[in-house]
Specification:
This protein has helices at residues 10-22, 40-50, 65-84, 124-133, 138-149, 153-161, 165-175, 179-195, 205-216, 225-234, 240-246, 253-266, 268-274, 279-290, 296-311, and strands at residues 3-5, 8-9, 28-29, 59-60, 89-93, 99-104. It contains 15 helices and 6 strands. A hairpin with a 2-residue loop joins strand 1 (3-5) and strand 2. The chain folds into 3 domains: 3-104, 2-Layer Sandwich (Gyrase A, domain 2); 139-246, no CATH class; 253-311, Arc Repressor Mutant, subunit A. With 312 residues, it is mainly alpha-helical. The radius of gyration is 37 Å and the shape is elongated. 58% of the residues lie in helices and 6% in strands. This is Glu-tRNA(Gln) amidotransferase subunit GatE. GO terms for molecular function: aminoacyl-tRNA ligase activity; ATP binding; glutaminyl-tRNA synthase (glutamine-hydrolyzing) activity; transferase activity. Keywords: ATP-binding, Ligase, Nucleotide-binding, Protein biosynthesis, Transferase.
Length: 312
């Protein structure tokens, strides 16, 4: 017959039911016969006795009359269920990944009060109290993150999906760093570092808060976040301040302007030929020198300002 699972046919399902309800060893299906010691002649005699046509099949059960009738009844009921679709039942897993009938689904007869627990009176006041204590629905949480913190919807969803929401809001409140930067650090930067094999689990929430606070205070460039976090993760116990120092720390705006002027002077001919169109190249050269030590936005502003002065 046609397989309904790899190596399992409808006949197998009928046999499973018979085994469960009648505790028989199994069934003989006419499509398996002759065989198992049953001859062709005996098969034909059974067909004649049952009045089977060319498209009919039959089942044989060799057991006591009581068990045989129970087995046939179970198989008959399963055959009728097959005409309705997939039956509602509890199934067990087989080693090869297929499933077999285990038992019927429990019905209302199995639902009864717990005898070991005292009854609890459910009052309207209690229900109202519980309603007020219910957590915020996911869709409202997402909308709040988008509206309150101006987060892109995909990043808001990542915060919610990775269970970083509470840490995010705590860091926003404690550090004063931009919400989008905090969210991106939690959902992108830390994830990328973990994929690189960096043990980010070594970074404490306090260290993370300190890093973001330094950025909010202007004492650290956001571009330095990956390097600082990597250093903290691979050197458990190191202070954030020491990590910044080992990476060269940040530079002041005046130090940044000095570097920009030096780059302009080194590329003076190119700058005079291109004018303000030299911004892209100069910006790239400056960033090579100050990446992680100065905020990219500040670098851009200083480069434009110094470039304008240089070409005027």
């Amino acid at each position: 017959g046609r397989e309904i699972q790899p190596g399992r046919r409808l006949g197998t399902e009928l046999a499973d039911r018979a085994r469960y309800w009648a505790e028989v060893g199994g069934l003989f299906h006419s499509d398996e016969l002759p065989g198992y010691g049953i001859t062709e002649k005996e098969v034909e005699e059974v067909k004649r006795a049952l009045g089977c046509g060319d498209l009919d099949a039959f089942i044989l059960v060799f057991e006591s009359r009581e068990k045989a009738e129970e087995a046939l009844r179970a198989a008959w009921e399963r055959a009728l269920e097959a005409l309705q679709g997939v039956p509602e039942e509890t199934r067990a897993a087989n080693p090869d990944g297929t499933t077999r009938y285990m038992r019927p689904r429990p019905g209302s007869a199995r639902m009864y009060p717990e005898t070991d627990v005292r009854p609890i009176r459910i009052t309207k006041d209690w229900i109202e109290k519980l309603k007020k204590e219910l957590p915020e629905p996911p869709e409202k949480t997402l909308e709040r993150l988008v509206e309150k913190y101006s987060l892109p919807r995909d990043i808001a969803w990542k915060l919610f999906d990775t269970q970083q929401l509470y840490l995010f809001e705590e860091l926003v409140e404690k550090t004063g760093a931009p919400p989008l930067l905090i969210a991106s650090t939690l959902t992108n930067t830390l994830v990328s570092l973990r994929r690189e094999g960096v043990p980010v689990e070594n970074i404490s929430e306090q260290q993370l808060a300190s890093v973001l606070a330094y950025i909010a205070q202007g004492a650290m460039a956001k571009e330095a976040i990956p390097d600082v976090l990597k250093l903290l993760a691979t050197n458990p116990g190191i202070a954030v301040e020491d990590a910044l120092k080992s990476l060269g720390g940040s530079i002041t705006e005046e130090e940044l302007r000095k570097i920009v002027r030096e780059v302009l002077a080194e590329n003076s001919q190119y700058v005079r030929e291109k004018g303000e169109r030299a911004f892209g190249k100069i910006m790239g050269l400056v960033m090579e020198k100050v990446r992680g030590k100065a905020d990219g936005r500040l670098v851009s502003e200083v480069v434009r300002d110094e470039l304008r002065k240089f070409t005027s």
